[in-house]
Amino acid sequence: MLRITDILDKTQSYLTAEELEMIKKAYIYSATVHQGQVRLSGEPYLTHPMEVAGILADMKMDAATIISGLLHDTVEDTLSTAEQVESEFGKDVAFLVNGLTKLSLISFGSQEERQAENFRKMILAMSSDIRILLVRLADRIHNMRTLQYQPPDKRIYIARETIDVYAPLANRLGINWMRTELEDLSFQYLSPEAYNELSMRVVKSNESRNRYTEEVKKIIYTELEKFNIKGEVEGRAKHLYGIYKKMHEQHINFDEVYDLIAFRIILDTDKEKGCYETLSVVHSLWKPVPGRFKDYIAMPKANNYQSLHTTVIGPYGERLEIQIRTRAMHEWAEKGIAAHWRYKEGRAYKDGEENQIKKLREVLEIQQEIKNPKEFMSDLKLALFPEEVYVFTPHGDVKSFPKGATPIDFAYSIHTDVGNQCIGAKVNRNIVPLKYKLQNGDRVEIITQAGHHPSKDWLKNVVTTRAISKIRNWINAEEKKSSITLGRDLLEKEFKRHNLKFSNYVKSDEIKKVFAEHSVTTLDDLISQVGFGRISPRQIVNHYLAKESVSVPEQIKEQVKKKATVSPPLGISLPGIDNVMVKFARCCNPIPGDKISGYISRGRGITVHTQICPHIKKLDADRIVDVEWNLSQKNAYPVHIKAVCDDSKGVLTEVSSVISSFDINISYAEVETTDMIASCNFIIDVNDLHQLNQILSAIRQLKFVKSVERMRQ
Ligand code: MN
User: How far is the CA of 73 from the centre of ligand 1 (A)?
Assistant: First the structure.
């Protein structure tokens, strides 16, 4: 078991005496609060935080990080409180421990691979300080090293989470040793058979491989010496999961994996030039395999990994992979961000550390140029400058939202209906108001009620475009519904004022032209536009009035004739004659009050004309007889009148309403507009001449009316 003195030994070279004292104090605190707790292995619980702190000490992390390693499980698992930690160890440590406590509460429940990426982002976002993530990874390393004490189903679960979530995170931070260890440990539990077979084979070939490794190293050293290049040559077996993945991805078996050993030349120089010189030395020694050279110095990997990679045909005709890098590049490759990232209490950076921050910034900027959103640095940036929050669905899926999102945003992200019917939300099992701002790691549950609907106020509490547009859609649809009711009402009234029936017009093809005039596609749209007040009902009526004016005179004639012929009003008597067929002349349409005469036509009875009708004057005077009105009852007689008006809008309506005020039926109406003059034609059914004259004089009173007259042929 690791002892506190081991940790102090590891750290005394770079920490102050004060900091070492603080680490000792944290050790005593942790030992006290974890007192009596045991791990599944049977060891005292304290071994775990000690091991985690040891890993962090090996990584040369700062005092606050190592202390947080010692305390990372105290708030979650013991009676210790966040306040205590802060008063004993200060704000910085309390901040880290608090972040770790939050991280320990979330676990990756979803089995879906596509969700893993979101979960990784959630962890990054929750690691608002990169040291939180480093402690979390060290924690996971130790838990994986002791995974055999967990029950079998838990082993699989933890191993899967490790390989899907934590190993990729270590890779993104550039910490190669962590990634390979996490992968190999997970591999061991997830595919035990493949793992065992592979490790047996690797061990079997161990001895000859060692001989081979030494031989190749010697050749390289000799060659480097010739060119006076100083550096170190390593030959190390690839990690098992790396070999396994290669076999799977390239569909090859173990014997076909040539580069089980990766050779590495780590140069003493800091100059990139040295790497390229070394490369040419290697290539002059062994023939390079075409297409296998990779220049990660000119084009670093997304996690800032830099190196030259080449594959050559080695001394036995075998393939040989060689990596060439400077010492600084090697540091990064192994330790990643931990090699460059140091904090101090109070965030006051000492000289040199500012450079490290600058370097990280530079790295961030390089990443922006690369623009690979899936890669590490954009995620890291997220952690440093969080713009998104990540929350769980009740099923353990992870969803991301812009900062400031509320349960309403969440509800709409699930389904429009869930959003529309959302009446409340639970976060981590507690009821929250709908305007609650979601936090990283929240488990969100939406409460819905059928028939419930959104309100305009919601727009103030949502940030996602989806929620905004769905709420607007709903409100618009609602408004449209009521605008259709109103619009239809307005249109019906307006049409009626012109003695037209709106419903007759919507069925005609002509309505399509009206749509086009107003840029709408459906009748509902047209009607709702009227309801919204964007189109006046008059505009629509006018379309029909203007249209019909084109063929008016003919139509008017037809209508009048039809009326006169089809339903001849009675009320005519011929002195001394009975049972004679009587009809009104189509030319003059007599109405009661007109002086009339009858014309005896052969075989067609008597036709009644007005006495002033130009036609009758031309007829045979011998056959003209006197006729009289004999009105025992009121009848309605159609008559065509025409009013000529100044072209001001609404003339037709005004004239119509005057006519209507006499309780007179208008059976036809139209307006014809030319050169600022509007001619209104009506067929009205009057009782007699007296009434007609009353109407005509009433129309004459209208100030825009120039003339009004009864039309005859
Ligand atoms: Mn732990």
Answer: 5
